[in-house]
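Risk register update: the risk of archive-format incompatibility is retired. Evidence:
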Amino acid sequence: MIRYGDRVFLHEGSRWFIWEPSWKLYRPVDGLQWTGTELRLDDKLYCTDPLDDLYGFGTERMYTRCFNLSQNFADVENAKPVPFLTIGTPEWFRDRPVALTACAPRDVESWKRLKLRRRTVRRHPRQTFTKRNTK
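Archived output:
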């Protein structure tokens, strides 16, 4: 059981679970991926129908497993904090292993562009160049 940011994760067997404090239960996740601007949980297989009784769990068997895990690992306040977490298949990007989504860019130049100041109506370039006729 580990704490990354404000969430608590549990790795049991070959599956990852995340603690939901409002439900007081663990629920399964397939991955945690970096999209370039935020970390996003991959739980779309378990959260398809919001009106389903098993929303967030998928099947009755998974709900039973999560309920048992919540009984056994209920001490989430004492979870060990970690500075870096990878759920999914990590791949080496520059100098560290990172789990990237399929749409995330893989080259360094596009990641450098993310830190640039965008040109919008409110943030127009301060220096303007005009072409003047010099005669």
